[in-house]
TrEMBL record:
GO terms for biological process: glycine decarboxylation via glycine cleavage system; protein lipoylation. The glycine cleavage system is composed of four proteins: P, T, L and H. Binds 1 lipoyl cofactor covalently. This is Glycine cleavage system H protein. The lineage of its organism: Bacteria, Bacillati, Actinomycetota, Actinomycetes, Micrococcales.
Amino acid sequence: MTDIAALKYTAEHEWVALEGDVATIGITDYAADKLGDVVFVELPAIASPVTAGAVCGEIESTKSVGELYAPLDGEVLEVNDAVVDDPSLVNSAPFGEGWLLRLRVDPATVADLMDRDAYVALTGGDA
């Protein structure tokens, strides 16, 4: 399992793991729990640009339809086809096999995201 204390977070309940200039992105366990059983995931096309704060995908659950926001500016390098084929991975392994996409980013921009303590405070301690 990923070290969740080492990740960065957004107010839209996404996590970011940075390796060099590649950011792996997913939604948090808190978001997955609030969504309920995820039944459909739509992700952006490989090689497409994404803009921080802009919608880049969709996550549908038995409770609602949610938008996936890009946490950073970047170019889509990879999408997790396993999640598209089996959306329940978002619920069962949000910090592992349930990751959503990988972007090439400016690593300096990741510092602007929240650390784990700030994210836990944002969720009222529920994360």
